[in-house]
C-alpha cells in the first residue's frame, strides 16, 4: 500500500520564545508542495520529527488537516497518531481518518513500558476502533519498550495493520519481521542509515528524516533499491551516508530543523525542550550537506 521514500516531515514554526512557537501554516503548505515536486512518495505528518510531543491536541489535528488539504490527493498522507494512552491513540487516529489521511502511524506506547500482550491489545484496540490503514512504529531507543517480531507477526493478522516502521536499529531485526510476516505486512526502515540494507532484506522503503532536505535523492535511492538496481542504490547511499549520520548528531529533529532553515525551506522555530543545533554540529551538518550535493 505504501512504499518508497516517506518523509517524516518537520512541523515549521515561527521563532518566538521557544516555549510555544506558533506553527507556520503557510510554510507547512509550501513544504508539502516541495515534497510533491521532488518525488517524495508519501508524507508522515506529526511524527517524532514533526514535534508531536510538544503540539497540543488541536494543533496536532490542525497540522494533519493542513497537510491533507495541501497534498490534495497528489501524494499519500500518513498521520502520526500514536500515544501512550490507548483511548488517546484511538481519538487521534479517528481524527486523522476524518481529516482524509490515507493511513496512520502509531508509535509503541512510550514511558509506561507495556508487556508484549499489552502492546498487542493496544494496537488491536486502535485497529478495531478505526478502519484506516495503520503502520506500527517500533523505536525502543525513544519509547523504552521494544515490540518483538513475534508480537508484530500476531498483529499482522489484523487486516488494517499494513506495515511496521522498524527503528530498533539493525537490519537483522527487520529481516526477522519480514520472514515472520511475509506479505501480510510491509516493513519500512525507521533509520536512514540502514534503509538500503532493510530494503535488500525485503523492506518496502523508509520513513525518512533525511528526505526533509534530500527528497529527490531519497526517492531515487528507494526507487533503485526496490527495482533491484543495486549499483545505483549503492552510489546514492554512499553520497548520503554522512548526511544520515549528521541528522542524528543531536536529538532529532534538532539537526534537520536547522538544515531546513539553512536551505530556506522554513523558519528556525522549535519548541523547548528541543534547542538550536550547536555551532560544532552546524559545521558537521554543512559538510554532510555539501557531500550530498545539497549546497
From TrEMBL:
SUPFAM superfamilies: Aldolase
Keywords of the record: Amino-acid biosynthesis, Cytoplasm, Diaminopimelate biosynthesis, Lyase, Lysine biosynthesis, Schiff base
GO cellular component, one term: cytosol
Single GO MF annotation: 4-hydroxy-tetrahydrodipicolinate synthase activity
Residue numbers marked as site, L-lysine inhibitor binding: 53, 84, 88, 110
Function: Catalyzes the condensation of (S)-aspartate-beta-semialdehyde [(S)-ASA] and pyruvate to 4-hydroxy-tetrahydrodipicolinate (HTPA).
EC numbers for this chain: 4.3.3.7
Protein localization: Cytoplasm
GO biological process: diaminopimelate biosynthetic process; lysine biosynthetic process via diaminopimelate
Active site as annotated: 137, 165
Record's keyword annotation contains Lyase: yes
Protein's recorded name: 4-hydroxy-tetrahydrodipicolinate synthase
